[in-house]
């Protein structure tokens, strides 16, 4: 066994154990931390597979941004763990059937008949100046251009739908609109007004002895 193969199996084992701990642990904060470890291990697997760009994106985007948001939301929410545990044994058989079904589908797609070395062949060893970022960009914007555009449109629709769901309708009198044209045409004399007022002075505070007299 070579050193690279040992690192690959080590990272794959860490990712698998972290994923299992993430779905079995009771504390949601610890589950999110196990998911972070799974992401980091998966990024290492991608780097060993000469996909450095995908590995770095996984760490920067998911670990650095998405998981930080998840941890912030989970720690801010008051989650009742006793309510979450209710009905676990009731839905355990259905959950087991779903797990077996997903595992069977993954085996059909990623099994040795469709995804083995006999089908795909040995990976090509690229030179040191090879850019996988450029290769991914060429594939996305040439071969998979329509699928890439369709995914972008679906994400845009999701953003618009989320904004529409949380949009609150307010009365016209409570909403303040900004008029850029009016602000630009405003003169200096219209911004403030000088007002003359008489000066006022406070009476000095009398000592306590004089007040008693």
Describe this structure in words.
By secondary structure, the chain is an all-alpha fold. Among the domains are: 1-86, NADH-ubiquinone/plastoquinone oxidoreductase chain 6, subunit NuoJ (Four Helix Bundle (Hemerythrin (Met), subunit A), Up-down Bundle), CATH 1.20.120; 130-167. Helices cover 68% and strands 0% of the residues. It has 11 helices and no strands. It has helices at residues 3-24, 28-48, 52-76, 81-85, 92-110, 112-115, 117-120, 132-143, 145-166, 180-184, 208-212. α1 (3-24) runs antiparallel to α2 (28-48). The longest helix has 25 residues, at 52-76.
Our count of helices gives 11
The shape is elongated
CATH topology of the domain at 1-86: Four Helix Bundle (Hemerythrin (Met), subunit A)
Query: In which range does the helix fraction lie?
Result: 55-70%
Structural class: mainly alpha
What value does the average pLDDT take? 81
The CATH class of the domain at 1-86 is identified as Mainly Alpha
* CATH level 4 superfamily of the domain at 1-86: NADH-ubiquinone/plastoquinone oxidoreductase chain 6, subunit NuoJ
Cα end-to-end separation: 103 Å
Work out the number of β strands: 0
Give the SSE string: HHHHHHHHHHH
Assess the beta-strand content as a share of residues.
under 5%
Uncertain stretches: none
What is shown here, in short?
The protein is mainly alpha-helical and 213 residues long.
Task: State the main characteristics.
213 residues, 68% helix, mainly alpha, elongated, 11 helices, 0% strand, Four Helix Bundle (Hemerythrin (Met), subunit A), single chain
